[in-house]
Input
Amino acid sequence: MSGGQYYAEATPEESWDVLLSEPGAALVDVRTTAEWAFVGLPDLSGAGASLLRVEWQSYPAMQLNPAFVETVDRELRAAGSGPGSPIFFICRSGARSAAAAAAMTAAGYSRCYNVAGGFEGNRDASGHRGTVEGWKSADLPWVQS
Output
């Protein structure tokens, strides 16, 4: 499926499969520090891939992180990933991560994917997240502090 300003959308399951199988693949969680602490994080400990945490926007003001591209580039290179590696971006439901994937594509990364549905996805009929789409709903590994 076409992603427009970034390489493509990927389901959480497709993302996990590549993170497991392709050297240099990485997942960049662009949510806020508060979300990482209180909602949880993808657990890549069994995947052999890197999980980077770099806020796209800072809580509570939700201002864009002016050093996002430079920080992600530096951390990806330190983790052994490069501009041709598959890089997956995830947020709560897919909006911030789409913007982050587009920013890294503009910076020269050619295989940026937005994880469709994000970590928690949209709300279900009861108003709860994590049950209808996203990483948690796909029953992929995650941890909570």
DSSP finds five helices and nine strands in the chain.
